[in-house]
Amino acid sequence: MTTVRHKRNGRKEEAKQELRFIDLFAGLGGFHQALRALGHKCVFACEINEDLAALYEKNFGLRPHGDIRELDISKVPAHDVLCAGFPCQPFSKAGGQEGFACPQWGDLFDYIIKILRAHKPRYFIIENVPNLVRHKQGKTWRNIEHRLRLAGYSVDDSILSPNQFGVPQIRERAFIIGRRGGLSGFAWPEPSKDADLAIRTVLDEKPDDARLLPEQFLKYLRAWQKFLDKFPKDEELPSFPIWAMEFGATYPYEDASPEGVGLMNLGSYRGSFGLSLRGLSQEEVVAALPPYARGRAKAFPDWKVDFIRQNRDLYKKHRKWIDAWLPSILEFAPSFQKFEWNCKGEKRSVWDYVIQFRASGIRLKRPTTAPSLVAMTTSQVPVIGWEKRYMTIRECSRLQSMGALPHLPDTRGGAFKALGNAVNVTVVRKIAESLLACDADVDNSVISNAGKHLVTEFLSGVSENAA
Ligand SMILES: C[S@@+](CC[C@H](N)C(=O)[O-])C[C@H]1O[C@@H](n2cnc3c(N)ncnc32)[C@H](O)[C@@H]1O
Fold it and tell me: Residue 242: left if φ>0, alpha if ψ -120 to 50, beta else—which one?
């Protein structure tokens, strides 16, 4: 409920107002949970995935419409707040970055604009990946903001993460909010200064349904524990990712990549783990190089050059004990021959931390926060080192502040995909609390002033196709 204070005949009148909201691209209903907790009512939802739509109905008693492209917009009920977490794949760093040109999802933002123009809700809250802001050097972002302004809204944006609001997950997301009639009185929620986050606050004690870490993964960790044990105690562990394939490698990397030098000109060099490249066929040379050193690029980006240099220096300095340790990881898949220690100054025990098995390597983090949940795969579900197990679906739902949601998808794949796509409920609630209170103390004269401001924006000649 939003407390609205109207000035009528010079007197202030207070009224608790239940606002009507719609939830586009509804997924698990992160927006729904947040706005309902504030006393507002969902009057329409839209979700193309049949299983998620059925789950939404089970959780909230409202059957979402399917594909937004097949929606008769005039049938959407009148509403005060439009909420939308439109698909992020075209804008995500992890995807093809096709943006609005993406044939599968690129046009979906258009439907948000169409609904805003047709129904003119007072507010909107939109969420997406932070890369949306950087996509095409900011062009995509400017286009989005312009179109929202042209639809009649004052617009603001921010990048926020649940860990700033007491929830132990690092998950930066771009939020755009808008209001017809200006944003005076709106402030983004203040990130909390309290740094005492602990992943334990979302964990169950020895949950029965927890998946234990398979033996192969325990083997990876034991091998890296040996590396930590052998590393000199009086020296700080590397803060850069350890790329073991560089230990013994000499292939060129600074001015040109192996491809830049020519794959058949590498006979005098060594590839991964010091493997000689002499006399190898082109295919054999490629196979003998680390996966990150293959490919068409004639030169490596600076960050890669730095990582390779740092790893080769590390090897030079510690070669004696590294050579004795190296055979223990030679059979591992390349991803697990890479290791990131994000626990500077902490006890050197792999079992004390939150672990994530990523394509970019095994990453260890302090047990304060979980890494961002990802939708694409279940292999990156955070691992609780001290219990040698993955986090459960219910525990991960708490990372999204959805611990109270009665029903989650039945399958592990379905559940992690939906949770990895969802918006964090606490973050939306904080934003909505501030935005929907915008009308407090606003009397007609203020609204009309804000309206004038908008008109000025319109007249400034921002064109829909400007960006
Ligand atoms: C980023 S997720 C939004 C998650 C949601 N905000 C939540 O809290 O769970 C995007 C959702 O849009 C849905 N979607 C994709 N294309 C759609 C379309 N054409 N019409 C309706 N929904 C669509 C996907 O199935 C997915 O659940």
Answer: beta
